Amino acid sequence: MKKIVLIALFLMCIVGSASAYQLDLSCPETVQVGIPLKCSIDSNFPAGTTFDVVVYQSGYTATPLRRQSITIQDIQTTQYLLFDTKGLPGGQYKVEIQFIGPDEGKLSTHSVILQLPKLIDRSNEITITSPITQTTEEPLRIEGSIKDLGNEGVEIEVTGPDGVVFGPQWIGTKRYIQSGAGEFTQQVSVTKPGDYEVSFKDSEGYIGVKTFKVVAPATSVPTTTPTTVVTTSSPQTTVPTPLPTTTQSPLSPLSIVTALSLFGLLSVFLIKKH
To answer: 116 lies in a domain?
Structure first.
């Protein structure tokens, strides 16, 4: 009886081992912010098996940031995933495999489906002292310093609207005595307006990226002085309204009466004489 039970358990183990599949997720322990997070996946799941790989920002609650689907192919070669880290804050992150169907139950106990990479943000080590906004009239001035860099030099690469316009190339730095920072200055010829990203690296790896805005020079608009037309006019003269004049008759009534009286006396005198 015991032999039968042992044989049954053995057969169950064989069946269980045959139905379990291996899945291994691998990510780097640390990566600089701005450099893509590159993870690899190896699996012997049957071709066509699909699952998601999700990137979370760790904290009090895990916040999903990126999600990408993976489908196993016939040749079952290693597959790689790239997750953009540009603009993400430094800190702990979580990369996890999530199955869409019931395939999770087929995983072997040795499978690895969780990774905890850490993003390192060094962008605050870069200080830019040249203007962030410049014009195409002059070369782009990239000036500033990097914390604790001293005289070790820094590698820069400038990418514009049409691609890389400078580098990657190492340029010298000058140690600032008071702080130990490494001061740098570089001019890059640019002819097209747009955003230009300058990435910085040192001997320890990627530091960060700074963005400059290049604009076309302001066009000068000719200014015309407005002509002032002065109109001179004679002052208006107010003509007083003439007073109404009284029209007088040629002879006053008294003169007429007197004349008539004289005419009557003369007539009487003439009659008496005759």
So the answer is: yes
* Structural domain that includes position 194: 123-215
Q: With a cut of 60, say whether residue 218 has pLDDT above it.
A: yes
| Distance separating alpha carbons of residues 201 and 127, to the nearest angstrom | 14
Tokens describing residue 167: 């580098």
Residue 196 lies in a domain: yes
**Long-range contact set of residues 34-37: C-beta below 8 Å, sequence gap at least 24:** 34/85, 34/86, 34/123, 34/199, 34/206, 34/208, 34/209, 35/85, 35/206, 36/82, 36/83, 36/84, 36/85, 37/82, 37/83, 37/84, 37/85, 37/93, 37/95, 37/117, 37/119
Total domains present in the chain: 2
If you count DSSP H runs as helices and E runs as strands, how many of each does the chain have, helices first? Answer: 2, 18
CA atoms within 13 A on the CB side of 86: 7
pTM of the model: 0.61
- Which pLDDT tens digit goes with each residue over 65-117? 899 999 999 888 899 999 999 888 899 999 999 987 777 778 899 999 999 99
